[in-house]
């Protein structure tokens, strides 16, 4: 049993530290004078290579340290405190349903997440949640010296991910049957 637990810790440590090398102070983006957030990634050139991108947050509300230390604030939604127009416009108790949709929004984004900070994300597909070709996607988000892992797998109707996502928020998902696209409702045209 001790051997299995030791191997588990060894594999976890290997996952955290293999490939966690972040971009140097003068990264390839700085050498080329390209803002990696606004530049279009050439997927054909870098789709199979481990590389790093700098993620710069946009449109983030003002968040103080007092907010992050307040457990009541963890249950709120600082980005959209009231439901947007697209969310169940005719439903009863719409505000409560919006809250129940993601009750730990601030906690996952700003307390254990880093959606309000600039950081480096490294991986084969660092701008994606899952591998666009299907299969595994591994990435590491790093701010200063703290590596935050991310792993995802997608094949057919199965999708799984665990870790710090592209926008810096923590998330867990297991989906065995992704939502199907709804067919367009088209009125029949009658020939006269």
Describe it.
This protein has 192 residues and is an alpha+beta fold. The chain contains seven helices and six strands. 25% of the residues lie in helices and 22% in strands. Strands 1-2-3-4-5-6 form a six-stranded antiparallel sheet, covered by helices on one side. A hairpin with a 2-residue loop joins strand 4 (146-155) and strand 5 (158-164).
Relative strand content = 15-25%
Please report the distance between the alpha carbons of the first and last residues. 79 Å
Q: Which residues sit in consecutive blocks of at least 5 with pLDDT less than 50?
A: 11-46, 182-189
H/E topology pattern:
HHHEHHHHEEEEE
Query: What is the CA-atom radius of gyration, in angstroms?
Result: 20 Å
Got a strand count?
6
The average pLDDT value, as a whole number, equals 75
Report strand order across the widest sheet: 1-2-3-4-5-6
Structural class: alpha+beta
Largest beta-sheet characterization: 6 strands, antiparallel
Number of helices: 7
Q: What is the general shape?
A: globular
Please give a quick description of this structure.
The chain has 192 residues and is of the alpha+beta class.
Question: What order do the helices and strands come in, and which of them pair?
Answer:
Layout: H1 2-17, H2 28-31, H3 43-46, E1 51-55, H4 65-69, H5 71-74, H6 94-101, H7 105-111, E2 119-123, E3 135-143, E4 146-155, E5 158-164, E6 170-175
Antiparallel strand pairs: 1-2, 2-3, 3-4, 4-5, 5-6
